[in-house]
Design goal:
By secondary structure, the chain is an all-alpha fold. The mean pLDDT is 95. The chain is built from eleven helices and no strands.
C-alpha cells in the first residue's frame, strides 16, 4: 500500500515550489529542481502533481493563504484547463481593487486634509502589497514566460494601478491639494516602485536590513507624503 501524503508534506511541496519559481522563473524551473529540494525522486513528485503547470497553478492559488492547500486525497493535482491560472490571478486582482482607497479617492472631490488622504492611499497600497507579497513576487517573476498571464498582470495589474495613480495626482495637483512634480507619470511609478520594494521585494533581499514592519510602513508613508505635499 502506498504511503499516505500528509497535509504538512503538501504545504512543504507548494512552499518549496513557490520559492523555486520565484528564484528561477517559470521556464527555467524544472520538476527535477523541486524534487531535489524536497529530497524525493522525480517520479515521486508526479504522485503529487501531474505537471509543472499543475504545480504552478497550485502555487499561485495558495500563495499568501489566498486559497486553502489542496486536500492530500485529491492528489495528484491535475493539469489546469487553459486560462485557469490566468483567471485565478485576474479574480484576485479584481477582488483587491474593489475597495482600493486610491479608486475611492478618484470618485470624490479633494478633501479638506489632502495630506491625510494621500497617507491613507499609500498606507492602503503598502498593506495590500505586503499581505499579498508571495503571490505578487511569484506572478511578477513568472509572467514574462507566459504571455496571457503577462497581459493580465502587467496590463490590468501594474499599469492599471499606475494609470489610476497618475489620474489621482493630476486631479489633486490641478486643484492645488498636492504639489505638481515635473513628471506625474514618473512620480506615480516612483511611488509604486518604492511601496513595492519595501512591501514585497525586500523580503527576498539576499542581504536584508533588520527593521520592523511598523517602521518600514511609517517611513514609506512619511517620505512620499512629504515629497508631494503642497
Amino acid at each position: 500500500m502506498p504511503r499516505a501524503i500528509s497535509p504538512e508534506r503538501v504545504k512543504e511541496l507548494i512552499e518549496t515550489a513557490t520559492e523555486i519559481f520565484i528564484a528561477e522563473g517559470y521556464r527555467r524551473t524544472q520538476m527535477e529542481d523541486v524534487a531535489r529540494a524536497l529530497g524525493v525522486a522525480k517520479g515521486t513528485l508526479y504522485g503529487y502533481v501531474e505537471s509543472k503547470a499543475a504545480l504552478f497553478d497550485a502555487a499561485v492559488r495558495c500563495a499568501d493563504g489566498h486559497e486553502p492547500l489542496p486536500d492530500p486525497a485529491v492528489l495528484p493535482l491535475r493539469t489546469p484547463k487553459a486560462d485557469s491560472t490566468v483567471a485565478s490571478v485576474r479574480s484576485r486582482l479584481l477582488k483587491e481593487v474593489s475597495d482600493l482607497e486610491l479608486l475611492a479617492a478618484l470618485g470624490r472631490p479633494p478633501p479638506a486634509q489632502p495630506d491625510a488622504e494621500l497617507a491613507s492611499i499609500v498606507r492602503d497600497l503598502y498593506r495590500r502589497m505586503s499581505r499579498n507579497r508571495c503571490g505578487i513576487k511569484l506572478v511578477d517573476r513568472c509572467a514574462r514566460d507566459q504571455p496571457e498571464l503577462a497581459a493580465v498582470w502587467f496590463g490590468q495589474g501594474r499599469w492599471g494601478q499606475h494609470a489610476a495613480l497618475v489620474e489621482y495626482l493630476e486631479q489633486r495637483g490641478a486643484k492645488g491639494s498636492l504639489r505638481r512634480p515635473p513628471s506625474v507619470p514618473v512620480t506615480a511609478r516612483l511611488v509604486l516602485e518604492t511601496v513595492a520594494f519595501w512591501a514585497v521585494h525586500r523580503h527576498w533581499d539576499p542581504s536584508p536590513q533588520e527593521v520592523t514592519e511598523a517602521d518600514v510602513e511609517a517611513t514609506v508613508v512619511d517620505l512620499i507624503l512629504h515629497g508631494l505635499s503642497a
